[in-house]
Each structure stands twice: as structure tokens, then as C-alpha cells.
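Q: Now give one record:
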Amino acid sequence: MPNARDIEMKLPSLDDLFSSQEERDDAKLKRIYEIPLDEIDPFPDHPFKVRDDEDMMNLVESVRTNGVLTPATVRKKEDGRYELLSGHRRLRACQLAGIPTLRCEVVDMTRDEATIFMVESNFQRTTILPSEKAFAYRMRLEAMNRQGKRTDLTFSPLDKKLRSGMDLANEVGDSQAQIYRYIRLTELLPEILDMVDEGQIAMRPAVELSYIPKLQQGMIWESMELEGCTPSYAQAIRLRRLSAEHKLTPEAVEAIMMEQKPNQKERIILRGERFNRLFPPDLPMSKREDYVAAAMEHYARFRERQRTRDDAR
């Protein structure tokens, strides 16, 4: 016969004793509310960009017609306001559509749990920029490491970081090495990081540039703007090495950037303010070649019309 101490006693909780089954079922349902937009704050340092592009305009029309079909997710803050975890595009669509509230699920999470949830939910997007991945990976890995500090007391800080990196790699599909490459991008100047997003600089040279102090990155960016070219992987390695040797001067940067690349047999360089002031201020460098080609085609047509008029005289 079993000892009474070995018998697990499962007593009902006070909530079970003093609430009906219907009330208990309701408590298990998601808490969905219409929350005023002016009571919702964006997630601090939210790494994912919200653009008023064609996709956003389509979302605005959908929200006007059908409302917000999938609730956003928020958590209650100590000051009574709400922090947005997922649904930043839906919130913006409501703003543009003139809808004063956002349909939200309210969850109870710690800061680190909220960070991990925010990154996971936004990774469902179809298109994610390198800069978005970079800051999202960094935020999530930092949150995972903080959580590990409370439970993995037998691991060293390096062990925890490596284990968190492996766990993250298993979840997101990128290798651990690739995740750390992305995180390195957060050390780039914003102007250079924008060039990575626009596809002007590849990942490997961008990672090399990230090890160079930001003041010297500024020199490199100015040279890229002036010369209209970006460093190859080999050139980025040389720039990094010269920086480590305290030999990276504006003259050294220009000399490297002016070198002909293997896949760049000839080029036309438009130097100085004389040309820079002719480009629209919001025109990205990746579009300058198309802009110059269109201008030359327009000028060629003008010259042809002028030549026709001269022949007719």
C-alpha cells in the first residue's frame, strides 16, 4: 500500500473554487481590445523600417475596407500606456486611413521576452533588409544572453554567447557565422549601412569596413561619394589593415579607391562639387548612372533637333 506522502494531492485553486466554468474559459481566451493609437508607443529601437510605399498604400486600402484582420500585439507598461511588439505597419496603416484605434492582443511579457517575440514576429516579413537583420539579431542575441545569465550559472560568458548564437542559428536558418557577420554591420556608419541595404556594397567588404573606427569610415564614405565607386573585398581588407597600423590617411583611401577592379575595365569618374550639385539631393548613388544616361540621351535628342533645324535653313 503506498505511503500517504507518495500520493500527489491535486487540490483545486481558489480561482477554480470561486469561478464558473464559463468564466474560466473566458480567461483563457486572448485579450483583444481596440486601443487608441495615441496610447501605443513603438518598441524601443525597433529595427524594422516602416515605409509609406506601394505595399503600405495597399495595406491602407485593406484596413479601410476590412479593418485590421490580424490583431497587433502589445504589452502593458508601468505608466499605463502600451508598447507595440508586432504590428508597426498595421498601426501606420491605421494612421494613414484615419482610424483612431488599433485592434490588439495584450500580453504579459518581460523586456527580454518582448524583445525575442518582437524579432520573431517581424521575421515573418517577405523582405528584410540587411540593416534590419543586423539590429534584430543583435537585440535578440543580447536578450537571449541576459536570460542565460539567470539560469546557466555553470557557463562562462563566452560559453553562453556561443550557445545562444547556436540556438539562434538553429531557429532562423542563417549560420552562426553569418549571424555574427550581420551583427558586425551595426558598427557601420548609417550612410555606409544604407549602401549595404541598397546593394551597393556586398556583405564581406562591409564587414571588413565595420572594424574601422567611425571617424575613418567617414573618410571612406566621402571617397566613395566623390569617386562614385565602392571597395572590393580585397580593398576593404587593405583599408582595415592600414587602419590597424594607423596608416589610413585620406591619400591612402583615395589611392585604394581609385584602383581599377578586375571587373571594371574602364570607368568615367565625375569629380567634385561641379557634378555633385547637378544630381537631385535625394538620388541614391546606385541610380546616378541611370540619371546620367537619361540626361545624355535627352541632350542627344536636343542636338539632333538642332541639327535638323540648321539643315532646313
About this structure: The first helix runs from residue 14 to 17. Strands lie at 32-36, 40-41, 72-76, 82-86, 101-107. The CA atoms of residues 222 and 269 lie 14 Å apart.
